[in-house]
Write a structure and sequence with these properties.
Order of helices and strands: HHEEEEEEEEEEEEH
Distance between the termini: 168 Å
Number of strands: 12
Radius of gyration: 62 Å
Strand content: 15-25%
Structural class: alpha+beta
Shape: rod-shaped
Number of helices: 3
Length: 238
């Protein structure tokens, strides 16, 4: 009887072990299936990166008229020079003022008859009232007469009233007239003269002023208008 009970107990123990082993195997199988399911789900959630396409370069963009095997060498940073900006201040050269042509008296005599402007004066020779458009400078016959400034001789002539005369054109619209000269004039039309060049001598050829003392009659025009010769020369004096 005891043997039978012992055998039954052993049989129950073996059955219990078998049950637990089967249970363990089932749990392992379930766990493995769950792991594979989770892994598959995670793989499905992975995002595949988009493919990046490389732009094609046409032959016209790469055609450098060079052989296919010609190496292209790029300049190094040392060889590429960058122009340096100048920090020095810009120096502006001062502009020199325009030089004014100098003037000087043609003879050193005193004024016998001054420029009258718009005022009438009585002529000793004519015995009448006239405009005196120039200045009479006292000088004896034969006294050298000099150019009042640099210029070009525009006329050499003998006038019925003013006798032997010389006309010189200067810069800035200035013209000088020398009347009552002698017949030994030393310049010709078109000749260039400098300040102080002798153009002739004082004479007695001006019939309109024959009653006056020996003198040079000097007249000056600025922009075709008569001006006071003495005042003009003093203003432009060297």
């Amino acid at each position: 009887m005891k043997k039978i009970q012992i055998n039954r107990a052993k049989s129950r123990t073996k059955n219990a072990k078998g049950f637990y082993i089967a249970l363990a195997c089932s749990l392992v199988a379930i766990g493995a299936a769950a792991w594979f399911g989770v892994t598959a789900a995670m793989r499905k959630l992975e995002v595949t990166p988009p493919e990046v396409s490389t732009p094609e370069i046409s032959d016209s963009e790469t055609d450098l008229n060079l052989p296919a095997d010609t190496p292209v060498t790029l300049p190094s940073e040392e060889e590429v020079s960058t122009p340096e900006e100048s920090t020095a201040p810009t120096v502006t050269e001062p502009t020199e003022p325009a030089k004014t042509t100098a003037f000087a008296m043609p003879v050193s005599g005193d004024v016998l008859n001054a420029y009258s402007g718009e005022n009438m004066v009585k002529s000793k020779t004519l015995g009448d009232w006239v405009l005196h458009t120039g200045t009479d400078l006292a000088a004896s016959a034969g006294t050298p007469v000099k150019a009042v400034s640099a210029g070009t001789v525009s006329a050499v002539e003998t006038d019925d009233l003013w006798g032997c005369t010389v006309t010189i054109e200067h810069t800035d619209g200035v013209i000088s007239y020398y009347a009552n000269l002698g017949d030994d004039i030393r310049v010709t039309t078109g000749q260039s003269v400098k300040l102080g060049d002798v153009i002739g001598t004082v004479g007695e050829t001006a019939d309109i002023e024959r009653a006056e003392e020996s003198h040079l009659h000097l007249g000056i025009k600025k922009d075709r208008e008569w001006v006071d010769p003495i005042a003009f020369i003093e203003e432009k004096k060297e």
